[in-house]
Design brief:
By secondary structure, the protein is an alpha+beta fold. Helix content is about 55%, strand content about 20%. The chain has three domains: about 15-110, Helix Hairpins; about 130-180, SH3 type barrels (Roll), CATH 2.30.30; about 185-265, Alpha-Beta Plaits. Strands 4-3-2-1-5 form a five-stranded antiparallel β-sheet. It has a three-stranded antiparallel β-sheet with strand order 6-8-7, with helices on one face. The chain starts with a helix and ends in a 25-residue tail after the last helix.
Length: about 290
């Protein structure tokens, strides 16, 4: 008897509870389903935007693929943020206060990380403008070397003596950048002196023939020999020639290595240092003379 009364009481309790909370439970279930639908929609919308952005970036010349990946990350994060706020609103959470907190936190983080954000902005601009690419040899003032990696925060270089250098992007973006690899051709200038008594016209002819025999030196533009400077004992000649950018140092050092032989084998002379000594009070030849 007591057992039946307990069962009846429990049944009545849950029946009353269901009648009171039926609408709330159904509403909560609908909210859960709607939240799942929003998550699924956000996932597919993010995928659609990803495909559109990557396709658009590949059609634009001179823009690195990394730009598309960064834009995809930003758009995807924005889509998920909106979806998250909508879901919170469905569950009755005050999103206005959350947005206020997020705004204040974003402002504080932005002020605290202004240098990092500056590097990111500079990195984006460098990826879009592409003044250089991986493999180029550049001089950005702060460092020079071959680019090994271009990131959002830093540009990583390797110097000619094998030293790794990481340069912040805002430093690179704010300074003039010399890209020694971008153009197909590059000009070299080498200055060498001959004795002032030598025939300059002959020296010019000899040096031109010497450069024309070098396979690394281009015929067009043609090499030149110009008189750079004249002094009492030296005539400085400027050898100017063009070569392919990737062969620049090979051409430069091959010319340097053969200059002395080319000059001396043609009868010309390299300048010798001279010093004029003047005796103000000459020493008398006769010790008895005054």
């Amino acid at each position: 008897m007591c057992y039946n009364l307990c069962i009846l009481g429990a049944s009545n309790f849950f029946s009353d509870l269901w009648e009171k909370q039926q609408n709330n439970i159904i509403l909560f279930g609908k909210t859960i389903v709607l939240a799942i639908v929003i998550i699924v929609l956000a996932y597919f919308v993010a995928k659609v935007f990803k495909a559109m952005i990557l396709k658009s970036v590949t059609k634009v010349p001179h823009i690195d693929e990394a730009v598309g990946k960064v834009l995809v990350s930003i758009v995807r994060g924005f889509i998920w943020l909106i979806a998250f706020l909508i879901i919170l609103d469905l569950f009755g959470v005050n999103t206005a206060s959350i947005l206020t907190v997020l705004g204040a936190a974003g402002l504080a983080i932005g002020l605290a990380m202004k240098d990092s954000l500056s590097n990111i902005a500079a990195g984006m601009m460098l990826l879009i403008l592409r003044p250089y690419k991986v493999g180029d040899y550049i001089d950005c003032g702060a460092a020079q070397g071959t680019i090994e990696e271009m990131g959002l925060f830093t540009t990583k270089l390797c110097t000619v003596d094998g030293i790794f250098v990481s340069v912040p992007n805002n430093v690179v973006f704010g300074a003039p950048v010399k890209n020694y690899s971008r153009n197909a051709l590059r000009r070299a200038d080498i200055v060498i002196g001959i004795a002032s008594g030598d025939n300059v016209a002959k020296a010019v002819e000899v040096l031109l023939d010497f450069m024309k025999q070098n396979e690394l030196i281009l015929k067009d533009p043609a090499p030149e020999v110009l008189v750079a400077d004249i002094s009492n004992c030296t005539v400085n000649l400027n050898l100017r020639f063009w070569t392919k950018s990737e062969q620049y140092w090979d051409a430069y050092w091959s010319v340097k290595a053969g200059l002395k032989v080319a000059i001396e084998s043609s009868g010309l002379n390299l300048p010798m240092p001279q010093r004029v000594v003047t005796f103000v009070n000459a020493i008398p030849q006769d010790a008895n003379s005054k």
